[in-house]
Amino acid sequence: MMIEDIWQALEEVKDPELPHVSVVEMGIVRDVQVEAGRVHVKMTPTFSGCPALDVMRQDIAAKVRELGFAQVTVETVLHPPWTSDWIADSARAKLQQLGIAPPIRHGGDLIPIAFLDVATCPRCGSTNTILKNAFGPTLCKSVWYCQDCQDGFEQFKAL
Amino acid sequence: MTPQVQSALAQKLLFLADDELILAHRNSEWTGHGPILEEDIAFTNIALDEMGHAATWHRLRQELTGEDVDTAVFFRDPAAYRNGQLVELPIGDWAFSMLRQYLFDVYEMVHLAQLAASSYRPLAEAAAKIRIEEIYHLRHTAAWVTRLGLGTAESHRRMQTALDTLWPYAHQLFVNMPEDEELAESGTAVRPSSLLEEWQHNTTSHLTQANLTIPTDHTPPTTDRAHHTHHLTGLLMEMQSVARQYPTAVW
Question: Per residue, what are the HEC states of B113-147?
């Protein structure tokens, strides 16, 4: 059993609030180490208050145990802080299919987060969109309105 | 880290955690009662964020003291809580809650920027992480301060009334506690008093632009985080009731 196999297995652990998107694609799993048969996984929280974090932690440990490892620790690390830039292209495509606009890539510059309201409508591709509420149905989503489709949509918030 | 610094730091983490937790609980009282659906959702989200930040501070404290987080939160009496009185005041009207959150958000932005430079790495890392999330809060509350301050005569009146009440309470956050001396000397955390000027500058310019008058009196009702209003007792009775009634419950 190689480390790659563990990474592969963790691709099956989904974010409970974003079905189909794995914790690996989300950039939540940061590191996997195997030492003397013990597995140590490092994960990093997206939003500190995300209620799904505990579920993901348990799911990650359970998935690694399924591979036959008895001793699994999942450590939460805060540094470097999770950024939405780590969301993989594969996950961005899945978000789009779920009707959730992916976050803009900001390259570590917080100014776009604070002041630039940019979202592309996941249905029609229009950028003629307006932010309705920076707070949405979950901590990680904001609510937008597309002036072309004339319907609302969600965006995964840049962080 | 010397035992003195460690003990001061554990206490400082309690200040940080209690401020966030009590404010989170107050904001959660708006769930289902917001003036419009969007703002109902916004306050609920902000409450959840602050709750997550409280948990982050509590976990850092647990690493130092070994005290279980749930025990610290659900089985500590009001007299042992160390939040500032600003956050325990009842929610009042929506203007009051929004302005309180704004004043606290600016304090956090100023404070966390300094804590991110702490010589204690876990504290620095947590502060850096939390500060990014706070950007969304400040953006939201600052916009509403402007809207309500410049809105109707009624919205302006409510904001001014809220400011007159909250302004002295907010100043308690900048009072140095005995632990702060030890922490400042060791480069672990800045003195709260050193944050006051920047906070006053930021809030005063924004509030003035919203046509609000800065109160002349800014003497906080207490300078001791061990002192509380009677409002905290009621809040904790509600927050702790289930955990105390079913101490062995698992969820």
Answer: HHHCCCCCHHHHHHHHHHHHHHHHHHHHHHHHHHH
Task: Residue A135: list chain B partners with CB under 8 A.
Answer: 38, 41-42, 44-46, 136, 140
CATH of B3-245, one of 2.60.40.420, 3.10.180.10, 1.20.1260.10, 3.90.79.10: 1.20.1260.10
For residue B125, list chain A residues with Cβ-Cβ distance below 8 A: 78-79, 81
Give the gyration radius of chain A's Cα atoms: 17
Indicate the burial class of B74 (C-beta count within 10 angstroms; 0-12, 13-18, 19 or more). Answer: middle
Chain segment A62-98, per-residue pLDDT in tens: 999 999 999 999 999 999 999 999 999 999 999 999 9
**Per-residue confidence (pLDDT) for residue A114, from 0 to 100:** 64
Residue count of chain A: 159
| pLDDT digits 0-9 by tens, B158-168 | 999 999 999 99
Domain boundaries, chain B: 3-245
Interface probe with A: pick from B132, B139, B140, most Cβ of A within 10 Å: B132
Percent helix, strand and coil across chain A, each to the nearest 5: 25, 30, 45
Positive or negative: CA dihedral A63, A64, A69, A72? negative
Q: How far apart are CA A97 and CA A99, in angstroms?
A: 5
Q: Which pLDDT score is estimated for A61?
A: 96
**Cβ-Cβ contacts under 8 Å for B179 (sequence gap 6 or more):** B7, B8, B9, B11, B12
Percent of chain A past pLDDT 70, that is, above it, reads 96
Is the pLDDT at A112 greater than 70? The verdict is no
In this prediction, residue B138 has a pLDDT band, given cuts at 50, 70 and 90, of very high
| SS3 at position A95 | helix
Answer for the pair B79, B228: CB distance below 8 angstroms, yes or no.
yes
Q: What integer pLDDT is reported at residue A137 of this predicted model?
A: 86
Q: What is the ipTM of this complex?
A: 0.86
Using CA atoms, how far apart are residues A34 and B71, in angstroms rounded to an integer?
A: 34
Structure tokens at A51: 């209620």
Structure tokens at B86: 């600003």
pLDDT of B241 > 70? The answer is: yes
